[in-house]
């Protein structure tokens, strides 16, 4: 396998990184809204959020992407490849991240909130100053996990016409007939990207304040 | 306020309708010419028709469509998708036509509009280099042979298998790349695919693969794919004319020689395919 | 586009077989993955550096590369190093190992979230290491690890679709083959969406049920 092929894989990985990063950020913003809606205790907000999460967690990403790319034009909305890719990936990760956040909020010890209120925090303050930071702290490892999952799931956006790392590997395998060498190289690139994400996540996690005992 | 809102709404609706109508007033050919580009969907893992060579999309299709573009006075805009996304994309109107190419079959002709053939698609066997147990197509009787799932090659292999004393153990793969990988890994004795494709595979990996000649079964042909609707009819007629012109003046034969090492004697159209 | 339901009904036996393969592989790989993942997490916590480092290295590789690439290399590369597995065993093995890597991390962060004081207290009153794992670590972290565990089960379900590239006759391979044979792209997409959605919903419901049960139990204890 030549250096040229490896270079092509590296270039394609820029799509993998870019699309994943944007989608995770957009997905996090949507996830906050979703988990807020679910914890609001009002059916008016929680029911639609529940359906959203159920749909985007339940239907395979590949199918979601094809629906966005190939079925929206039928009703007159023609989305370009890159938009379909980012929308599909963002909505999907939002559903998973919302579920993580919900779990985090649910596992904030009740005693902490009670003691905060006892020392004179209003419920709003207790929520903002105690519950949110602890929930975010508790779910941070899950967020890093999700980032890595999305980096890998982004390979599916090839189905809407984005030649990212996995697709480039498949194209090159279909052109050179050296699939093992090429897939191993692509795997190595994914590994390096994800190790960087995991290390960065670990560093950030350590710099965060510890969980109160 | 409310009246103003209504008027504005109606005006927007009229505008939307107007643009929809004007977009459909012309046919696909006129739109392609007005835009100055023909959008072609394909999979770039189908050597030697479409593949990535030294980082560039290359192959017979690229050369042929460059000439078609010249004939029509437009540039070619390629959309690369995995094959399972290509035909649905065509039906969703994501591009004007599909390169591929695909084997011209009866079933496909019912659904799609094919161009004149650009190459022969007759099926042959790819074996491991130096395998002496397969020297002619009949030798695959009783052996495990790989083929792409839901392909015309599968239909041809199955039909051929029926004519053999012992049936072929047909193994279906999601794509031919995986079947080549399994041939290299030794789980199957051969892969059945169209001759131009496996000839290219064998030429790229001489130490690993070898083609078993002659091809078997009935002759079949590769054509490019378009939709059958009236909107696309003038475009497809123009593509047909460009291809036949290239065939007439020898450009197509030259490209076949460049990519397959030999030119094919293809008919101008395939009204009644064997499969 | 015409939506033809008959395409689905004609092929129902094949589709159900594909769904059966998917469900069996999913359940087996999830249980296996959680089991081995727990062993890995315990091993890394108590096994010392000699166990922790190599296991951590393997977990990083498995989590850091796409399952598609792992399974491709295992199945098509395996025979070159003398590991020629059939599609279904290869798929099950690949999926279990992949799941185990993720589950080990879920359990590890579960362990880490348990207040050190609880463990020290347990040690003070003379509980053995095995007892601490069973009586303190497991029950205390269950609430925390349950949501990500259900998430992971869902991810494993979706990864079973990748097994189509090594010719495992699971749901996605079966339905998409029918879809492209009959040009029923839209029908097959909707069918796949529906079946996977139903399975994920079932898993999610079970997870929620377990969560409510457990939280009731926890509060009755306090």
Automatic annotation (TrEMBL), chain A:
It is found in: Cell inner membrane; Cell membrane. Keywords: Amino-acid transport, Cell membrane, Membrane, Transmembrane, Transmembrane helix, Transport. Residues 9-201 form the ABC transmembrane type-1 domain. Its main location: membrane. The chain crosses the membrane at residues 12-39, 51-69, 75-96, 138-162, 182-204. The keyword Acyltransferase does not apply. It is a multi-pass membrane protein. It holds the Pfam family BPD_transp_1. InterPro entries: AA_ABC_transptr_permease_3TM, ArtM/GltK/GlnP/TcyL/YhdX-like, MetI-like, MetI-like_sf. Belongs to the binding-protein-dependent transport system permease family. HisMQ subfamily. This is Polar amino acid transport system permease protein. It comes from Rhizobium herbae.
Automatic annotation (TrEMBL), chain B:
SUPFAM superfamilies: Periplasmic binding protein-like II. This is Polar amino acid transport system substrate-binding protein. The keyword Transmembrane helix does not apply. Residues 37-262 form the Ionotropic glutamate receptor C-terminal domain. Keywords: Signal. InterPro entries: Iontro_rcpt_C, Solute-binding_3/MltF_N. The keyword Signal applies. Residues 1-25 form the signal peptide. Residues 37-263 form the Solute-binding protein family 3/N-terminal domain. Its main location: periplasm. It is found in: Periplasm.
From TrEMBL, chain C:
Keywords: Amino-acid transport, Cell membrane, Membrane, Transmembrane, Transmembrane helix, Transport. It holds the Pfam family BPD_transp_1. InterPro entries: AA_ABC_transptr_permease_3TM, ArtM/GltK/GlnP/TcyL/YhdX-like, MetI-like, MetI-like_sf. It comes from Rhizobium herbae. Belongs to the binding-protein-dependent transport system permease family. HisMQ subfamily. SUPFAM superfamilies: MetI-like. This is Polar amino acid transport system permease protein. It is found in: Cell inner membrane; Cell membrane. The chain crosses the membrane at residues 23-43, 55-75, 81-103, 144-168, 180-199. CDD domains: TM_PBP2. It is a multi-pass membrane protein.
């Amino acid at each position: 396998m030549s250096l040229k092929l490896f270079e092509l894989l590296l270039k394609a990985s820029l799509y993998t990184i870019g699309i994943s990063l944007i989608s995770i950020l957009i997905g996090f913003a949507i996830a906050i809204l979703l988990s807020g809606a679910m914890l609001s205790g009002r059916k008016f907000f929680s029911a639609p959020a529940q359906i959203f999460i159920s749909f985007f967690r339940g239907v395979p990403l590949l199918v979601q992407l094809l629906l966005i790319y190939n079925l929206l034009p039928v009703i007159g909305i023609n989305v370009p490849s890159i938009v379909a890719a980012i929308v599909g990936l963002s909505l999907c990760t939002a559903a998973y991240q919302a579920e993580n956040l919900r779990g985090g909020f649910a596992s904030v010890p009740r005693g902490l909130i009670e003691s905060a209120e006892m020392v004179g925090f209003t419920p709003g303050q207790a929520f903002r100053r105690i519950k949110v930071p602890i929930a975010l702290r508790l779910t941070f490892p899950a967020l890093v996990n999700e980032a890595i999952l999305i980096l890998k799931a982004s390979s599916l956006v090839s189905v809407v016409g984005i030649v990212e790392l996995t697709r480039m590997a498949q194209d090159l395998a279909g052109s050179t007939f050296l699939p093992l060498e090429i897939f191993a190289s692509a795997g190595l690139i994914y590994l390096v990207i994800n190790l960087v994400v995991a290390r960065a996540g670990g560093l950030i996690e350590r710099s965060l304040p510890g969980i109160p005992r | 306020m409310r009246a103003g809102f209504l008027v504005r709404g109606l005006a927007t609706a009229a505008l939307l309708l107007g643009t929809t109508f004007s977009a459909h007033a012309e046919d696909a050919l006129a739109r392609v010419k007005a835009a100055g580009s023909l959008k072609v969907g394909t999979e770039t893992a189908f050597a030697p028709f479409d593949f990535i060579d030294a980082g560039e999309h290359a192959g017979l299709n690229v050369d042929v469509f460059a000439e078609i573009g010249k004939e029509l006075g437009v540039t070619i805009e390629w959309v690369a998708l995995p094959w399972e996304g290509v035909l649905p994309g065509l039906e969703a109107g994501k591009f004007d036509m599909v390169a591929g190419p695909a084997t011209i079959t009866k079933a496909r002709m019912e659904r799609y509009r094919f161009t004149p053939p650009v190459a022969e698609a007759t099926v042959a066997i790819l074996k491991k280099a130096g395998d002496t147990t397969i020297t002619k197509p009949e030798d695959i009787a009783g052996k495990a042979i790989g083929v792409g799932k839901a392909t015309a090659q599968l239909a041809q292999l199955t039909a051929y298998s029926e004519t053999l004393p012992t049936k072929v153990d047909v193994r279906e793969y999601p794509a031919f790349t995986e079947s080549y990988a399994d041939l290299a890994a030794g789980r199957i004795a051969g892969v059945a695919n169209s001759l131009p494709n496996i000839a290219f595979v064998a030429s790229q990996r001489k130490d690993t693969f070898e083609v078993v000649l002659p091809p078997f079964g009935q002759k079949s042909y590769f054509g490019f794919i378009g939709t059958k609707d009236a909107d696309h009819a003038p475009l497809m007629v123009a593509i047909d004319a460009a291809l036949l012109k290239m065939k007439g003046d020898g450009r197509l034969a030259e490209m076949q020689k460049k990519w397959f090492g030999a030119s094919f004697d293809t008919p101008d159209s395939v009204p009644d395919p064997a499969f | 586009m015409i939506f033809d339901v008959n395409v689905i009904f004609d092929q129902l036996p094949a589709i159900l077989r594909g769904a059966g393969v998917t469900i069996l592989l999913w359940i087996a790989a999830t249980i296996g993955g959680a089991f081995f993942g727990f062993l890995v997490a315990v091993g890394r916590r108590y096994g010392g550096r000699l166990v922790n480092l190599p296991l951590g290295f393997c977990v990083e590789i498995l989590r850091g590369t796409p399952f598609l690439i792992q399974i491709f290399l295992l199945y098509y590369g395996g025979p070159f190093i003398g590991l020629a597995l059939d599609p279904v065993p290869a798929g099950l093995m690949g999926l279990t190992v992949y799941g185990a890597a993720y589950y080990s991390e879920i359990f590890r962060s579960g362990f880490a979230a348990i207040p050190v004081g609880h463990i020290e207290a347990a040690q003070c009153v003379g509980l053995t290491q095995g007892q601490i794992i069973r009586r303190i670590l497991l029950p205390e972290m269950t609430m925390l690890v349950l949501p990500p565990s259900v998430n992971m089960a869902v991810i494993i379900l979706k990864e079973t679709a990748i097994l189509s590239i090594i010719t495992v006759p699971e749901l996605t391979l079966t339905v998409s083959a029918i879809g492209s044979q009959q040009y029923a792209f839209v029908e097959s997409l909707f069918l796949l969406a529906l079946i996977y959605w139903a399975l994920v919903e079932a898993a999610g419901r079970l997870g929620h049920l377990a969560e409510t049960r457990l939280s009731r139990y926890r509060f009755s204890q306090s």
